[in-house]
User: Fold this.
Amino acid sequence: MNSPVSDAASSWTRLWQTGVRHSCSHGFSGNYDGEIRQFWLDRFSVLTDGDIVLDLGTGNGAITLLAKTFSMERGIYPQIHGVDLADINPVDHVPGGAELYDGISFHPSTSMASLPFADGSVRLLCSQFAFEYGPRDAAAAEILRVIGTRGCAALVMHSDDSVIAAITRAQLRGCDWLLRGSSIVQDTENLIAEMAGAGTPEARSKLGSSPSAEAARMAFNDAASQLVSRIESDPDSEILQRAAQQIPRLLATPCSNREEASAISFGLRAWIEDEDHRLRMMHAATLDRPALEAVARRFGSGGLPVRTGRLLYRESICMGWTVVVGNE
Assistant:
């Protein structure tokens, strides 16, 4: 049986294995840009040769790459590390990873409440949309331990009024409808099963006279029509559009028997369930102002200065809260 930790990380592990650089569905091409990029460059400006930089909840290392690129441009060579509870391996999963991540060390399956770094050894700890997912009190204590009195921690966290929170709510509506408010997933699975082995004219002719195949086709057509209507009524839920694009590709995938058909159709349900799981975790991790203030107080108990703020993209789009701990 999987532990709660492995269950929590498994859907994220599968996401990072696809090679995406970041998890935000509205994200940016390539790496983070604009004010988000500048926030991190301002933090990296304190670094000198040999300093330890630790990215908490690194995923596929978007922030570590920013740190590496900016430092190289300045002729500075810090020790850059990324940790994540998920079983990450950016070097293998991101195209060109061996070159991209050269000089960066990753620590997979590592809890933010138990970091493999000595007391006061970390000069800069970074975390973008990660700290708030974990055990906050234990993680804050561990962050204070590894940065000591000389280091600094900078966090970007989900806020309840951010564009990410709005997108998350829309995506959750779509997941809920696909998994619990519609029969489209089951009807797709049934139709794929009926079509298994229909690769010859004789098989297709037999399929055309099959009552069960005709019933599956009619049920699917009705569910697909409902999906189109749902997309029109909820255009902000991008996952509905992605499902509508993926289903025809699955139906067109050749399969010679029902075992192959089951494997093909399982991918659709697993993908939606993974999206639903990650989005629910994201929604639960979103902080309102009282929750932000509680985080700030926890860090403040360590005796270091704490500054909070908002991170705006293109001067007006709220991306989340910021917390900076320590002297920069």
About this structure: The chain has a mean pLDDT of 89. The first helix runs from residue 4 to 17.
